[in-house]
Amino acid sequence: MSSKITSGNTRPSQTLNSGTKRSQAKLDKKSAIMKAALELFSRHGVKGTRVEKIAALAKVSKTNLLYYFKSKEQLYIEVMQQLLQVWLAPLASFNEEQDAVETIKDYIRVKLELSRDHPAESRLFCMEMLHGAPLLEEQLKLPLKELVDSKAMVINAWIKAGKIAPVDPYHLIFTIWSTTQHYADFRIQIESITNNSLDDPAFFKSTLNNLQNIILQGVQPSQ
After folding, report:
1. Whole-number pLDDT of residue 18
2. Which residues of the chain have a pLDDT value below 70?
3. Distance of alpha carbon 20 from its chain centroid, rounded?
4. What CA–CA distance (Å, rounded) separates 100 from 10?
5. Alpha-carbon 66 to chain mean position
6. Domain 1-69, what architecture?
7. CA 195, CA 15: separation in Å to the nearest integer?
């Protein structure tokens, strides 16, 4: 009698643990697919990448891959959406109450860290832009534009309050994006000229200091 009660009491826990493990396994598999897709998309583009190659790199079957993602295009869009979420989070934190110069300085650091730590994502985004963003157009027209517009208003508020010098907010954002992402998108060029990359701590620090000084000199308020 006692053993039956004990057995009955453990079943819900066992079922829960089993369900949790299955859910985690699905998340791990989906993550592996997206990681493999990112690597191949960033090298060959969406047209030059075959689903079979992604599946092989992720160590899943093609059928299993298409269970999680209905098509290569859907997988590509989800990879790009995840990329945008990571990249835009630092910009989304801008608010009028912050110290403007310190916020911009820190934003440059974060963007350069992203170029160092996520070069494949940066190259993939660059490739998408060069091809006219055929699969990402809606993401650029709506969420991205709305975010940049709202942060341009924050920058204009900083200017009005005298926290930074008058500059065009959009060009300031574009300048930070282009200068920091250059070190990922044109990594081969950087290495060829300097024999170095952001992976070297000393080169990263020197690059960061120079970019911060160059950009911040243009926004420092007049005394």
Report:
1. 63
2. 1-19, 133, 135, 139-141, 223
3. 28
4. 57
5. 24
6. Orthogonal Bundle (1.10)
7. 56
Dihedral sign (CA 114, 116, 121, 122): positive
Cβ of 193: how many Cβ atoms within 10 Å?
A: 9
Contact between 108 and 211 under an 8 Å Cβ cutoff? The reply is yes
Q: CA dist 164 to 151, 172, 175, Å?
A: 14, 12, 16
What is the DSSP annotation of 38-103? HHHHHHHTTTT--HHHHHHHHTS-HHHHHHH-SSHHHHHHHHHHHHHHHHHHHHHT--TTS-HHHH
The rounded Cα 162 to chain-centroid distance in angstroms is 32
Tell me the CA end-to-end span of the chain in Å, nearest whole number.
85
Domain 1-69 and domain 79-223, same fold? Reply is: no
**Burial tier of 115 (Cβ tally within 10 Å: 0-12, 13-18, 19+):** buried
pLDDT tens sequence across 6-63:
444 556 655 556 667 777 778 889 999 999 998 898 888 888 899 999 999 999 999 9
Which tokens in the block code for residue 159? 């200017």
Architecture (CATH level 2) of domain 79-223: Orthogonal Bundle (1.10)
Its pTM surpasses 0.85: no
- For residue 157, the tally of other CB atoms under 10 A from its CB is 16
What does the domain layout of the chain look like in residue ranges?
1-69, 79-223
